[in-house]
Amino acid sequence: GIALETVCGKIMPDWDSLFCYGILMMNAGEPARAAKTFSLLLDDKFPPEGENKKADAAMMAGIAFNAAERWQEAQRALSVAMKDEENRVDAIVESAKSSAGLGEWAVAERLWQRAVELDPQNEDGWMNLATRAMDYGEIEKALKIFKRVSKLEEPSREAMATIADVFLQMGDLSDAVEVAKRFAEDLPGDGLANIVLATAYNKNGRHKLALKSLEKAELCHGIAEFEPIIARQRRFAKHPEIEELFKKSAADALDGDAAEAALELQGIVEKHEDFVEARYFLGVALRRDERLSEAEQVFTQLLIDSDLPGCHKELTGICAVQGRSKEALAHAEAALEDMPGEDDPQLFTNLAAALMENDRIDEALKYAQRAEMHMPDDEFTKRVLALLKQKMSKRGLIKNLGAVMKEAWSWKRKKE
C-alpha cells in the first residue's frame, strides 16, 4: 500500500492504479480511505475503459462506505452500481445493509427479498432474511430459509457452518446431520467441516461416527486453532455422561442452585482440566454464589489459558460490585473488543455503568441508550440511565452543550 501510494504521488495516477489502491486500503482495514479512492473513480477526471468499470468502482465505494458506517454515502454509490446488470443483485444486497445501518429494517427486508427474486442463488440475501426472521421470533420461517440455503448450488463454508449450528441449537438434529454431511462431502479437506459433522453426530448419540470425523479433521491443514473444540468433542464421544452432567450444571450455574452447580463443575474440572467451558461456568456459579474472590481467580486464569470469550464481561461485574471502577472499565472495554460488531445489551449496560463511575458521562450515555434499545424493560439499565440523567443535570447546561457539539464535530469529521 505504501509503495503504491508513493508511486501515485510521483506520477499521474490512472484508473487501474487507483482501483488497486482502493482494494489495498480495504484489505488493510482502512475503509474510509478506500471509499474516498473509489469515489474518485466515479468522477469524469478518471474515465474508465468500459461503462461497467465505473459500476465496479461504484460497487466497491458502496462496500467501503458501508464498512466505514457511512450509510447514506454508501446508498448514493450503490444507486450507480444498481444500473449495471452484472452488479445489480450484489448492489441491492449491499444497499440493504445501508438501510439496516440507518435503522430502516422494513426497507432492508424488501431489498433482500428483491435480491433473491432476481437471483434465487443469492446466499447473502437468503441468510439475511433468515437472520431477520430469527430476530422476529419466526423460528419455523427462519429454519425453512436456512434449509433452502443449504441446498443452493454452491453454499459458502461460513453459511454451512452457521446453518448446521442453528439446527443443532434448535434441536433439529436430523437436519443438522444432513447439512453437516453435505458440508464435509463438499469440503473433505476442511477441518471445520469435519468438526461440525462430529458435533452433529455427537448430539445425535452417534459417538463412533463422531470420532471418525474428528480423526479426519486432525489430518486437515490449519487445524491448530480448532484444538479446544476437537478436545471437547472427543471427550463428548468417549464420555457422553460428562457432557450431560456439564449441560445440567451449566444451566444451574446460570439460573438454578449456584452452590450445587459449583460443586458439580468443580468435580468435572478436577477430572478434565482442559475443559475450559466447565471452568467458565464454574466461575459463573461461584460469582452467583457470591464467592467473588474465587470467581475472579477462575476467570483471570482462564484469560491466561484460553481465548474463551466472556471472561472480561464477568470480571467487569465482579470489579464493579467490589467498587474497583478503573479495573471494571478496563475489563468492560476489553470485553467489547472481544466481540466486535456484536450487540450485547448487558455488556453495553455494564460498560455504561463503568464509564459513569469513571466520570465519562457522554460515552456512558451512548452505551446505556444502546442497551435500552435492546432491553427497554431492564431495571438495571433504567437505573443507570436515571443516574446518568441526574449527573448530566448537575453538570450544567454549558458542559452538556459542549458534549453535544463535540459529538456533532466527531460526526462531521467522520463524514470528511
UniProtKB/TrEMBL annotation:
Keywords: Repeat, TPR repeat. Pfam families: TPR_16, TPR_19. This is Tetratricopeptide repeat protein. InterPro entries: CellSynth/LPSAsmb/PSIAsmb, TPR-like_helical_dom_sf, TPR_rpt. PANTHER family: LIPOPOLYSACCHARIDE ASSEMBLY PROTEIN B, TPR REPEAT-CONTAINING PROTEIN PA4667.
